[in-house]
Design goal:
TolA/TonB C-terminal domain, alpha+beta, globular, Ubiquitin-like (UB roll), five-stranded mixed beta sheet
Length: 269
C-alpha cells in the first residue's frame, strides 16, 4: 500500500510588481486529520496589511476546506516591510505529503474502533470519518489525527489509542476550571520548547499564555494562544501539546480540566 506522510508546507508569494516586501513568514501547521486522510493542495489567502506592515485580516480565496483554517492562522502571523500606507497581497500555502513509507515510522497496525456508552447514532456519524481500516499501518502522529477527527465529528466525545492500537471512543467527562499554578503542580512530563532561531537572533523574549483543555487521562486535548509574540507562539504550542498531567479527580471520578499555561522564553544576558 502506498502511504502518504508529511514532508513540507511551502509558502510562496506571487512576484507581482508593487506588492509589499515580506520580512517574516509563518508556516502553517499541517492539520493532523488532513495528514491521515491524505489531503494535499494549495490554499490561497488574501491578506490586508496596515501601514506598519502587520496583517490585519486574512480571507481564504480557495483550496481544500480541511487545510483552510491552518493557512488562515499562519497568514495572520506574516509581517511585511512598513510602507506608511495600507496594502494587500495574496499568499499561496502549498500543503504537500511525502509518498515514501520507508522514511515514516509506524507504531504498528490499527486494531479498529471500540465504543463505550456512545449512542448508536453518534457511532454511525463517526465510523465513516475514520480513514483507517483494521490492519492498516498506523503512521507516527496517527493518535493526534484520530483524536481530531473524533472531536470534529462530535465535541461530546473523547478518543485515545490503547497500547494495543485500538481506538477507544467514549463520552467526555465533566469539566472544571483550575488555576494555572495548581495545575502546574500535576505535570508529570514537560518537554521544554525549542527557542525559535529567528526569535533568538532578533533578541525576542517574553511569555506565551495559552488556554488549555486537559482530558480526563491527563493529555492536552486543546490549546489556544491568548497572547504572546507570534514568533514564539508556535514553539510554545508544539511543546505543550506533548505535556502530560496526573489525573484530576472530582468525587473520585476523573474530570477534564480547563486552565491557563504560561510558557516563558528568556535569553541569556
Amino acid at each position: 500500500m502506498n502511504r502518504f506522510f508529511p514532508l513540507l508546507v511551502v509558502c510562496s508569494l506571487p512576484a507581482l510588481a508593487g506588492e509589499p516586501t515580506v520580512i517574516h513568514k509563518a508556516n502553517p501547521k499541517y492539520p493532523p486529520a488532513a495528514k491521515l486522510e491524505r489531503i494535499e493542495g494549495v490554499v490561497t489567502v488574501a491578506v490586508e496589511i496596515d501601514e506598519r506592515g502587520l496583517v490585519t485580516e486574512a480571507r481564504v480565496l480557495g483550496g481544500p476546506k480541511e487545510l483552510r483554517r491552518a493557512a488562515e492562522i499562519a497568514a495572520l502571523d506574516w509581517q511585511y516591510a512598513a510602507t506608511g500606507k495600507p496594502a494587500a497581497a495574496n499568499i499561496d500555502f502549498n500543503f504537500t505529503l511525502q509518498r515514501d513509507a520507508a522514511e515514516a515510522p509506524s507504531r504498528g497496525l490499527f486494531q479498529g474502533v471500540e465504543f463505550t456508552n456512545v449512542p448508536p447514532e453518534a457511532q454511525a456519524r463517526l465510523l465513516p470519518r475514520v480513514p483507517l481500516k483494521e490492519g492498516d499501518p498506523l503512521p507516527a502522529g496517527a493518535e493526534d489525527a484520530l483524536r481530531q477527527i473524533v472531536a470534529d465529528t462530535d465535541l461530546k466525545l473523547l478518543a485515545y489509542l490503547t497500547a494495543g492500537n485500538k481506538l477507544m471512543v467514549e463520552p467526555r467527562a465533566q469539566s472544571i476550571r483550575v488555576g494555572g499554578n495548581v495545575q502546574a503542580a500535576k505535570i508529570e512530563y514537560q518537554p521544554r520548547p525549542s527557542y525559535p532561531a529567528e526569535a533568538k537572533q532578533a533578541r525576542i523574549q517574553g511569555t506565551v499564555r495559552l488556554d488549555a483543555q486537559i482530558d480526563q487521562y491527563g493529555s492536552v486535548s486543546r490549546l489556544e494562544v491568548i497572547n504572546g509574540h507570534p514568533m514564539l507562539a508556535p514553539a510554545a504550542l508544539a511543546a505543550v501539546r506533548q505535556w502530560r498531567y496526573q489525573k484530576t479527580l472530582l468525587n473520585g471520578n476523573p474530570v477534564e480540566v480547563a486552565t491557563q499555561i504560561d510558557v516563558n522564553f528568556t535569553l541569556a544576558p
